[in-house]
């Protein structure tokens, strides 16, 4: 047997219109908002039809009910539009998470910082995570330097909601969108990578016979939750 097709649910009108208004008398407001007083319902409907409009019951609990002469189709459209705008303004704030490594390169830093800016512009909070591995945990100042660098880049759009703190082998900080002052137009972020000063010369080789990068997976080191750098993928 085939699946039974469900019948579409009938639309529920929130207002009684025209001949669905069953009361004998109504208080009438015309299309310009002028009070016309109490009238027989049939006379009010005739007046609406003369203007090629509809008589719509807007306050059924009043005595007598209040009706308005209007373009009901336009009224429904504008009401639905206001409802959509209200839902858009009630967007649920999400907490995004972006991961860094103490040795995050400038290219990856710029890429991730642009995404953090986008998250903040969309009204979301962002949790910054610096992931330490191995002996890196003995130098937490490197993670703090990364987070302070992010703050400097985003000072125009971000405020610190939670200061940097260690949790196991991770250093976390939470940013929130900076409240925008009324009348201030937010400048657009520059496109493309941000110019960086020349990198300092590499440190001399370690004399203790240990390799600081031993056992590290580069792809994992600079992992960003929910972010994939297309340039990095193309290079691979």
From TrEMBL:
Domain Translation initiation factor 3 N-terminal: 17-86
Domain Translation initiation factor 3 C-terminal: from-to ranges: 94-178
Main location as per UniProt: cytoplasm
BP term (GO), one: ribosome disassembly
Record Gene3D superfamilies: Translation initiation factor 3 (IF-3), C-terminal domain, Translation initiation factor 3 (IF-3), N-terminal domain
InterPro entries per the UniProt record, alphabetical: T_IF-3_C_sf, T_IF-3_N_sf, Translation_initiation_fac3_CS, Translation_initiation_fac_3, Translation_initiation_fac_3_C, Translation_initiation_fac_3_N
Record-linked Pfam families: IF3_C (PF00707), IF3_N (PF05198)
Chain residue ranges for the region called Disordered: 172-236
Acidic residues compositional bias, start-end: 208-236
GO CC entries: cytosol; membrane
Location(s), subcellular: Cytoplasm
Keywords: Cytoplasm, Initiation factor, Protein biosynthesis
GO MF term list: ribosome binding; translation initiation factor activity
Coiled-coil region(s): none
NCBIfam families linked: infC (TIGR00168)
Family stated for the protein in its record: Belongs to the IF-3 family.
Quaternary state and interactors: Monomer.
Stated role: IF-3 binds to the 30S ribosomal subunit and shifts the equilibrium between 70S ribosomes and their 50S and 30S subunits in favor of the free subunits, thus enhancing the availability of 30S subunits on which protein synthesis initiation begins.
Protein's name according to its UniProt entry: Translation initiation factor IF-3
Lineage, uppermost ranks: Bacteria, Pseudomonadati, Myxococcota, Polyangia, Nannocystales
């Amino acid at each position: 047997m085939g699946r039974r097709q469900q019948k579409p649910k009938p639309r529920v009108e929130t207002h009684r219109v025209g001949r669905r208004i069953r009361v004998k008398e109504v208080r009438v407001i015309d299309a310009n908002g002028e009070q016309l007083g109490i009238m027989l319902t049939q006379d009010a409907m005739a007046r609406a039809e003369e203007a090629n409009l509809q008589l719509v019951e807007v306050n059924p609990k009043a005595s007598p009910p209040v009706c308005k002469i209007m373009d009901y189709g336009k009224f429904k459209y504008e009401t639905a539009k206001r409802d959509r705008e209200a839902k858009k303004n009630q967007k649920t704030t999400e907490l995004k998470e972006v991961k860094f490594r103490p040795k995050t390169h400038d290219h990856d830093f710029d890429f991730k910082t642009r995404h953090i800016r986008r998250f903040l512009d969309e009204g979301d909070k962002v949790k910054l995570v610096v992931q330490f591995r191995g002996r890196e945990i003995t130098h937490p100042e490197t993670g703090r330097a990364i987070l302070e660098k992010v703050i400097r880049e985003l000072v125009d759009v971000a405020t610190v909601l939670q200061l940097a703190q260690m949790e196991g082998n991770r250093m976390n900080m939470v940013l929130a969108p900076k409240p925008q002052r009324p009348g201030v137009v937010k400048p657009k972020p520059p496109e493309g990578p941000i110019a960086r000063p020349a990198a300092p010369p590499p440190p001399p080789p370690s004399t203790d016979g240990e390799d600081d990068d031993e056992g590290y997976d580069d792809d994992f080191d600079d992992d960003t939750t929910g972010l994939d750098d297309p340039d990095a993928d193309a290079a691979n």
